[in-house]
Amino acid sequence: MTCEVFAGAGFQLDSPPLLSRSTVDRREELRESLDGGAKLWHTGKVVLVDAKGRTQIGEDSRLIVQPAIDFGDRPSPNAVLLGVEDDVSYWALRTDHDGAQECWRDLRSGGALLNDTDAGLLTTAVGLLGWHDNARYCAVCGAATTRVRVGWARRCSGCDREEYPRTDPAVICLVSDGEDHVLLARQPIWPQYRFSVLAGFVEVGESLEACVAREIQEEVGVEVSGTRYLGSQPWPFPRSLMLGFAAIADRNAPLAPADGEIEEARWVHRDTILAALDAEGEPVDGLRLPPGVSIAYRMIKGWATSKP
């Protein structure tokens, strides 16, 4: 794989990915004991998240948080410490409330509305609580695990092993021809007309660059070169970290969409992408772009608005 720079490949993300924004201090030193977090509990705030990753967002596009002391005089054993800002601690708790009301929204529908602080809080809360839901038993001996380090680890009741939150790395790559066309594809399960850039999970023993080359070859049957890094975004659905890349491919090479995985792949001209951006979610020429909260949108917009 080469790393040379091609004409038209020098674009950047148009702005930081929306779910990469964060302002709170995670305060790792407070995770060592529940007493450390308890020092800030009485002035703390709690973000409630339901089983579908939804929370309350107010009309002012701010998270609706609850005083921590409403949940007891000390941190709840089920609470996770998200961070501290201006001497206020922020925590997350799972709620069994059915957040079906209009003001309860998930990251996909509400993440773009939030400011930097709230986006970081909710992204961390959704990912961390989701990990706890699926890490209740030890992967080594099968015994039950309990939360420790104010929600940033679990300890096995059988072998005393500590386990930490998992993040699954995935590459996402914008492939262009180095000029005015970008390669987009759609999966069969996506909403009608939805197209995006190509992505896939990193395999064991594989570098990020090798994963880019393999995934593009497997999904659409073309070889890429000039691979370079753009940026990253947490994607807690349930625990991915999207690592964004750009690469170049030959537009004349035949496309071979992976059967059952890629329903359609096609080269799209820059003018069509610009029109789709202006359409704000409405299809243009049978194409609808990914939502603005995704790093895919930031990559596509960054490419489309750069000079070829």
From TrEMBL:
**GO biological process per UniProt:** NAD+ catabolic process; NADP+ catabolic process
Record InterPro entries: NAD-cap_RNA_hydrolase_NudC, NADH_PPase-like_N, NudC-like_C, NUDIX_hydrolase-like_dom_sf, NUDIX_hydrolase_CS, NUDIX_hydrolase_dom, Znr_NADH_PPase
One example GO MF annotation: NADH pyrophosphatase activity
Please name the Pfam families in this protein's record. NUDIX (PF00293), NUDIX-like (PF09296), Zn_ribbon_NUD (PF09297)
Residue span(s) of domain Nudix hydrolase: 165-291
Q: Name one GO cellular component term.
A: cytosol
Q: Which reaction does it catalyse?
A: a 5'-end NAD(+)-phospho-ribonucleoside in mRNA + H2O = a 5'-end phospho-adenosine-phospho-ribonucleoside in mRNA + beta-nicotinamide D-ribonucleotide + 2 H(+)
UniProt keyword Nucleotidyltransferase, yes or no: no
User: What cofactor does this one take?
Assistant: Mg(2+); Zn(2+)
Similarity comment: family membership: Belongs to the Nudix hydrolase family. NudC subfamily.
Name of the molecule in the record: NAD(+) diphosphatase
